[in-house]
Amino acid sequence: MKRVLIVKVTSLGDIVQALPVVADIKRAFPGVAVDWAADEAFAEVVHWSESVDRVLCAPLRRFKKARRWGDFKAIAASIAELRAYRYDFIIDIHGVYKSAIIAFLARSSKRIGYQSQDLGERGAAFAYTGRFGPRPSCDAWHGMRISASEALGYKVEGPPAYNLRLPTPAVVPFAANGAPVAALFHATSKDDKKWPLSHWGAVGRELVQRGFQVVLPWGSERERAEAEQIASQVPGSTVLPKLSVTEIAQMIDGCALVVGTDTGLVHLAHALQKRTVMIFVATSPSHCGIDAPFRSISIGNGQAVPTVAEALEAIDYVQGESRAVAMQHGSAAA
């Protein structure tokens, strides 16, 4: 096998969590080239992967909103790039119309997608020449790894490998004071996923007491106003300036701790192997949570608001290993 195309178009968190599929394929088939098709809005995230050979993208989301001629021409040009190679397999781990159309336009006689009951949009089935097995009983992220392995005939082995390398930051977005940095990602895409601002304030104050420098990122004016409300409750905290996705990723990479709701940027923190706590209020942690021993944990059950005490207990957990190592080193020095 020489070349495989992965189709996962959106969104940030889903794309981040799908990246280990590439490492799995390359482990199973040394020398294979793996390309990736994504929406232009999220293509930079795929570019950070050291495992992906070629990133194919088009402004699909932007064209849907604005219908600009320039975006249409960019989509037309991307089709030619998409068809530049013939693929041994196309693996659509998205399962909606736009991903199916991409799979159908690419050159391959083997286009694999989800079974009808597992598709995001059932009409996407027109594009496939083969199907994954039934959706496995596990979280969505491991499920993608299993589906791809079934399609290509290998076994999933080991923990997920994201293999991310970020561009070197030009400017640090906050004044470093030597203290470890904790980022609080309070913003969410939907109001029902929000954690109370008073809870964020309580966690922020506790982190400051523990010696952290607390920073608050935001994306919209409403989120900036909420960040300022939290900062008013947390002495010494910093509301960050408006940052691009790349700049936020670089900021995350400099953090000692990330606490946030179920959002793509918190999934990115997990993929960058930061100590991460993800808070679930209205979505399912068993389906789309994060977990790595002593490093990442999900709290909440998707049906009730987790308490401040639960968040602090989770923070203790993800910091536990590092504190134990530090204590061991201290004892040895004594």
UniProtKB/TrEMBL annotation:
The keyword tRNA processing does not apply. This is Lipopolysaccharide heptosyltransferase 1. The gene is waaC. Keywords: Cell inner membrane, Cell membrane, Glycosyltransferase, Lipopolysaccharide biosynthesis, Membrane, Transferase. Gene3D superfamilies: Glycogen Phosphorylase B (3.40.50.2000). It is found in: Cell inner membrane. It is a peripheral membrane protein. It catalyses: an alpha-Kdo-(2->4)-alpha-Kdo-(2->6)-lipid A + ADP-L-glycero-beta-D-manno-heptose = an L-alpha-D-Hep-(1->5)-[alpha-Kdo-(2->4)]-alpha-Kdo-(2->6)-lipid A + ADP + H(+). CDD domains: GT9_LPS_heptosyltransferase (cd03789). Pathway: Bacterial outer membrane biogenesis; LPS core biosynthesis. It comes from the Bacteria.
